[in-house]
Write the structure tokens for this entry.
Amino acid sequence: MNELISICEAEMKAKFSDEGSGHDWFHILRVRNSAEKIAVAEGANVEITILAALLHDIDDHKFNGGDVKAGPIAAYNFLLSIGAKTDLAQSVADIVDQVTFKGAGVDTPVTSIEAACVQDADRLDAIGAIGVARAFAFGGCKGRLLFDPDDVPAPHQDFESYKANKGATINHFFEKLLLLKDRMQTNTGRALANDRHAFMQQFLFEFFDEWGVSRNWGGEK
Ligand code: ADP
Ligand code: NI
């Protein structure tokens, strides 16, 4: 096993083992494993992809007061501290910088195939059954309502308004999760996203039926 990968795994496992918002070590491990699978299928550099997947949430803007540059810097510094070469650390930091979702109206382009693999893997973990579970874990952690029928979803047009949003968790499906299937960067990611998307649509129809609002609440799914 590659030594840098082993050290990163141990560090992230120790740091995130009891995180309660759905950004725990098992999220990182699932992203690492999906990113590796996508990288192999897409012919990307597997070492860079795995290191970036492991470090992608090392200092997340959602938990550090909104600083988006802290993650890439922390990933870069950590890799240097464990003996990585500067080019490798820079490649990983560039990927960490390109993973995060920034709002419905904001493009998040990637500059390498490895970044595409990690962005797709992270987004796959935001949808499907696990995505549903993670969204409500995050909402609970931040003290959000499950659902408010009067609180209309807002497709955020800039990162600042997306970050500032404090809406009910159901809105997050319309503001991010249902959009991800069409924003996958790789063919492998696109193929994996379809079933997970269909499960979320089904979940929402059922949720709205049980609540007693129109199953078309929120519009197109
Ligand atoms: P990203 O960097 O794209 O936000 P992460 O891996 O850090 O990706 O985690 C995103 C996950 O956090 C979402 O998929 C969701 O589960 C949760 N999350 C983030 N914002 C919200 C929100 N406003 N409401 C509910 N869940 C949220
Ligand atoms: Ni993540």
